[in-house]
Amino acid sequence: MQNEAVDKQQQAARRDILLNAKNLCLDLILLNQEKTLMDIRMKNADELQALYEKRLTTGDANILEVNKIKMERMNVQTEVAQNSAAHRTALQSLLAMNGNMPLEFAETTYPAIQEINDYNVMRDEVMASDLDLQAAAATARAAEKQVSVDRQGWLPKLEAGFRRNTDDAVSMNGFVVGGSLPLFQNRKKVKIAKAQAISAQLMQESAKDRVEASLMSLFNEMQQLKDAMNAYDVPLMYRSLDLLKQALTEGQISLIEYFVETESIYKNLQAYMQIEKEIVVFVTRQDLYKKRAKFVLDFEEGNIRRNSPKERQEKRIRDRKLYYGKLMPFIYARFFGLLGLFRVILARTISLFRPMMLEVSECDMRVTVNKSCALAAQTFMIAMANEGYDTCPLEGFDSRRMKKLLKLPHGAGINMVIPCGIRDGNKGIWGERGRVPFDEIYHRI
Question: Using alpha carbons only, how large is the chain's radius of gyration in Å?
Answer without folding.
Answer: 33
